[in-house]
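Quick illustration, no need to memorize.
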Amino acid sequence: LCPVGDPRGLLARAAGREGPVLGLIVDDDGRPERARAFREREDAFDGGVVHVTREGPRASGDLAARLRGARLVVLALFGDVRAGKGRAGLAPSLRGFAAQVLSRHGEKTVTAVFGPPALAAGLPAGAGVLAFGDTAVTRRAVLQALLDGAEMGGRLPGGLVPGEEGWVGWGGGNGSR
């Protein structure tokens, strides 16, 4: 796990924070198992967990009210990279949704990227965690770091940097841009 960008010190303050915490899963591939680690930690997500796919949110209730009422939002970005998909990032509708959440609630949102940095490229920059993968163990580790304050000691082989227009992604094991 690699912390990336945290201009307001939100990562350090996320664990133990009082008030509703909302888990917001933005899933380009609509895989229900991605929400499991979040639901296992429902004690910490007292603001609820919402799974958003290209078909729309998988939750009842008013998402806008949940976002306004949350003291912390964990915005989890998921997307598979595979042949024939045509892109490495999020679908335009999901990218627009994530950008809207970050532009309106960025001061209280931590973005967790489960997969390639391209998932967040171009989104408004802020506090983030880059996980480089999407396994059950990785999802639990990210939540343990964000909600319990577990140490993140990863290094970036490629990743994200904040730029003037939002997150700028790059890849490759050599760290080149």
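Strands lie at 2-4, 21-27, 49-53, 56-58, 72-78, 109-114, 127-130, 159-163, 166-170.
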